[in-house]
Amino acid sequence: MAKNSEKERGRNGRSYFLGNNVETKAAAALIILCVLYGFRIFQSASFPSTWDEVDFVLAVDRFSLADMQPHFPGYPYFILGGMLFSAFTENNTLSLVLWSHFLLFSSVFPLFWLSKRMTSSLAGRFFITGTVQVSSYLWFVSSQPISEGAALGVMWWYIWSLCWADEKKNLVKKSLPLFLFSILMGIRLSYLPLGTGLLLLFVWELRKHRDINRIAILLTLAVLFQWVWLSALILSEGGIFSFLHLAFSFTEGHFTEWGGAITAAKLTLLERSLLFIKNTWFTGIAGENILLLVMSILLTVLAVKELQGKRIKKEGALFVLLAVSYVIYAFFAQNPEKPRHMLPVASLITFGVYAVLAGKNKGINRLLAIFLILQAANGFYLLKEARTVRPAVYQLEDYISKSGEPSVLYTWEETRMLQYTRAPFTHKRIETFAFFKEDEQNYSGYTVYLTGKALRGFELQGAATKDCAKKVKTFESSHLVDPVYSSISLYEWTCRQ
């Protein structure tokens, strides 16, 4: 009798502890992922390394858009999560990182559920979910105190909810993607183009029910969900008028001065296009690894060939719409110098390629497995490299602090970091050469330093600086952590009166 029951359990693939074979594999995959996340947390940033990161970290203690804690649009749900996790650690940087990891880890479930719609292969589902999760550049970015990791986690819940809601008749269930989209907007407003998914959901709804009242109800709910975080921001800034003034000022600066939008950047269309492709593919998908780049291109070509002559599923159409919508927005409105802005597209492409290829045959599965393992290994490498070298701005502070001379440093944006670290010397953000010439006269007996960014700003204003600026040192750090200020040159101003 005992032997028969053992045989029966063998036929059913069941055990007393982990259930059937599927459950065993799922449990094993989840344990491996937990170990990888543990390593991520161990190697995560423990201090802010960029201007944006300082904004976020300071906001955990005191939220104020007026004081750039953080900068507009406020990222309220990201900061709220950091505040909640600050109960477990006194390090505000780590609290934001933990919040990002929590949301990103939770996206294992919608990723697996979405993959079930794409392939009947269990191995394929694990490949899809695992590769998106261990993508080396996403691994790297989610370990910084910035909102991209958290936003990517919610993005996958949102995409899954669109597919799930389409199958439901109940309006309450239909409202789930509206709610999740509001959470996504409260974490990272630049993911707004993904709202085209809601428009597609409304189109599907109209085709099924041909009832405009249902659409009106859903639209009303969508507005109310967004109003929750928006009204909180308005109250925090003292009212609608002060909030609008701050919003318009920031938006104008983003699109006309420093934001990197096509209306502000000084790149040609060709230069912007090439940088856009590099940031999406070489950095976003391949983690700046040549082998991963070659493999990703090969896998993409195979996926395109596999799709030829086949009808795209409804879920596939949704993915294409979301990717194209975000690509158009990111190309024209985002800063091309920051690869992290392309993470949504990189993640969608990775998911799509794996969804097409996973489970097709053993040869393809081996390629997918190798790509997954290399992504994880490259993630280890990127984190280790970033932690080995101190950010350039910290090196700059150390150098001037140890000089032992009274010094004043004129910077462009670096002064935000120096304020955070409470640098023991005078430093100022300077924008015009005329003001610099007037102000530096107040520091007789001081060594006057300038950063390369400040100096280039003077040159763009027509100032003759070549004979007066003596290069002292250049500080280098990881360009993945801070693409803009990974290299800082320090100059001494020698034309003193």
Automatic annotation (TrEMBL):
Keywords: Membrane, Transmembrane, Transmembrane helix. The keyword Membrane applies. The keyword Kinase does not apply. The chain crosses the membrane at residues 26-42, 94-115, 136-159, 179-203, 215-235, 281-304, 316-335, 364-383. It comes from the Bacteria. This is Glycosyltransferase RgtA/B/C/D-like domain-containing protein. It comes from Fictibacillus aquaticus. The lineage of its organism: Bacteria, Bacillati, Bacillota, Bacilli, Bacillales.
